[in-house]
Amino acid sequence: MKDIIVFGGLNMDLIVDTPRLAGPGETSEGTRFYTTPGGKGGNQAVAAARLAESPGSVRMVGRIGDDGFGIEMVQFMRDEGIDTSLLLPTKGVASGVAVIFILPDGENHVNPVYGANALCDSKQADDVTSILSNAGVLLCQQEVPLEATKKAIDAAAAVGVTVILDPAPVRVVPKGFYDSVTILTPNQVEASSMADVEIIDYVTAKAAALKIRDDIGIETVVITLGDQGAWVEGEGISELLTPFQVDVVATVAAGDAFNGGLGVGLASGMNLLDAARLGMASGALCVSKSGAQDAMATRQEAEALLSRYS
């Protein structure tokens, strides 16, 4: 399997389970608090590493602060077999954090403060470029500055590396930002915003995917639809992938789990639909557990779920 490079954000997640969100000026007691390493980049890296089962094949590029959270996040990834040699500690700056409120139905509300992630620049983009020779996939998101992400994406595409971009969080991007993206993976909310189409089912998901492809010119769009599955729209492919049925504990990092699985599938030679199914199994198993990176599925768990639906 070729290497998977992940360039993106790392946050320490501060998670509160709560019956409901407090209103303005109100105190509403939660039921549980815990911390877990997170951030879209970190989550995707751990998801990919657990599925790849090939220590050192997943390489993380980004920035952390010079604080305890940064040390803890790096150690967690090293323990997962991820190459963290290109994670840059930044003096005098806090690592990214995200305060996450999880409601009883598993839905989450996230408020991040990106800290050191916001300082990613051409140095990180050049780091990505320096390790492209054995790469099959570059995974990116929109948590770190867009200029650095764009430079990394363009470098990867120039040497034929598949670029998977999760357009989250939703941002206003400069013209041409998506030109070098191979696969765009918005969720239902993000795709609705990008296409200006309300997505309520697979029919409207298809309409949104086609509009995104036509407007932006991306080769493939995969819209994740939660418990409705995923819509895949690409050259010669226009298909709904049906969901895996699991008991939902928390939806934190579900999209990141999907992207990690999709990346592993493509880097190991799977076709697009099979790679997307691996991503969906990864996402389904993630939402069946609490946490972010520690909720990511192993290859054995993913294959067991896939086999039940084969």
Task: Give a verbal description of the structure.
Helices cover 35% and strands 24% of the residues. The protein has 310 residues and is of the alpha/beta class. The chain has one domain: UDP-N-acetylmuramoyl-L-alanine:D-glutamate ligase (3-Layer(aba) Sandwich), CATH 3.40.1190.20. Helix 3 packs parallel to helix 4 (146-158) and helix 7 (254-267) packs antiparallel against helix 8.
Task: Please describe the structure with a list of short key phrases separated by commas or semicolons.
24% strand, four-stranded mixed sheet, 9 helices, globular, 310 residues, UDP-N-acetylmuramoyl-L-alanine:D-glutamate ligase, nine-stranded mixed sheet, alpha/beta
CATH homologous superfamily title: Ribokinase
Class derived from helix and strand content: alpha/beta
Fraction in helix: 25-40%
The CATH top-level class label: Alpha Beta
How confident is the prediction overall: mean pLDDT? 96
Query: Count of helices?
Result: 9
CATH topology assignment: UDP-N-acetylmuramoyl-L-alanine:D-glutamate ligase
Low-pLDDT ranges:
none
Which geometry do the CA atoms define?
globular
What does the main sheet amount to?
9 strands, mixed
β-strand percent reads 15-25%
- Architecture, CATH level 2? 3-Layer(aba) Sandwich
Number of strands: 13
* Spatial order of the strands forming the largest sheet: 5-4-1-8-9-10-11-12-13
Radius of gyration computed on alpha carbons: 18 Å
Secondary-structure element sequence? EEEHEHEEEHEHEEHHEEEHHH
- Total individual domains: 1
Distance between the termini: 24 Å
